[in-house]
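Limitations
The structure tokens in this dataset are predictions for the assembled complex, not deposited experimental models. Users should treat interface geometry with appropriate caution, especially where small molecules or nucleic acid strands are included. An illustrative entry is reproduced here so readers can see what is and is not provided.
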Amino acid sequence: KQEVTQIPAALSVPEGENLVLNCSFTDSAIYNLQWFRQDPGKGLTSLLLIQSSQREQTSGRLNASLDKSSGRSTLYIAASQPGDSATYLCVPKGDKIIFGKGTRLHILP
Amino acid sequence: GAGVSQSPRYKVAKRGQDVALRCDPISGHVSLFWYQQALGQGPEFLTYFQNEAQLDKSGLPSDRFFAERPEGSVSTLKIQRTQQEDSAVYLCASSALGKRGITDTQYFGPGTRLTVL
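Predicted assembly:
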């Protein structure tokens, strides 16, 4: 059974810092991996989708990497802003879609 | 265009009551998913529809939970004889393809927060 771990569980950093969120998963038989953000009281918004054949994917200030064989993905956020405050969820997609518990990120103005 | 909508946004039920939660997916989306999200946890899969066919209901926690999508668009998640442990946010998502949401992006609704007293 796929198990997904996200570290850290919570993170507070001053505005402007670069930061890295980590995701590890136990079953490397995945088709792709997706990162979402969730704002309080709202649904999930897709950030990046990395195919299993790719090593990384970029969108604006966000860069996600995938090392499928070792079961790891990282989400890099450059020049963080208060609007980046949210919970970030990692989802490795195999035959089942299993979510991590997320990293709660708070950017201090 | 309109995104995924869910209603009601909040529902308070007394233990033992039946509830029905509605999901309006993005028009034309083949796949529809229901998830349950407890406080501080990630969403957990409940069930999956491809058009009107319920292809996977392995995540439904008990036979008190029932979902339908009779015309392949709107879906309803029904919980009978609600219990306190059913309190959670129920999220609906849709995706364009009929690939179980694996190869394409899922679009999520805002969720229904269910509180069972």
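Some entries come with short summary sentences. For this one: Residues 37 and 43 of chain B are 4 Å apart (CA to CA).
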